Amino acid sequence: MQWSIDAAHSTVEFRVRHMGIATVRGQFKTFEARAELDDEDALQGLEATIDVKSIDTGVSQRDEHLRSPDFFDADRFGDITFRSRAVVADGANRYQVTGDLTIRDVTRPVTLAIEVTDIVTDPWGNRRIAGEASTVINRKDFGLTWNQVLEMGALLVGEDVRVHLEVEAVAPQEAAV
Question: What residue numbers bound the domain in which 14 lies?
């Protein structure tokens, strides 16, 4: 059964090193996703689409640079997508989900470590589940290669990007009884 992500109660965040000394955080404000759960409410699959133009680091000039051809080239490659290929249970309410992540039309396998909550019923009778997922990707693997080497040898923008998602999903209405 496909559950829809409640974007109002979910976040797609990232962190990357700046000049080798600090961490810059950002998020994508617009995305949609679906989670597939089996009859026993075990995770079976995920797919997500993220609107690159919705990037927000809190600094508009940096956000515009990230949307530019130097990084995401949002006018040409408007979406980041993830489609799971394998889900492996990794303990109680934990999963390793491997899938295809596509950024700038470059697709690479990525594994998300996911921990989910038990299912609850909200005050309106909807069944909900939440989860946290994380992974680390190398941005250069996806064609995000712009950088500068600083005098001390550090990179202006780190290559490893830590991705963290916190999502809440809602069961289809017919399953919410």
Answer: 2-175
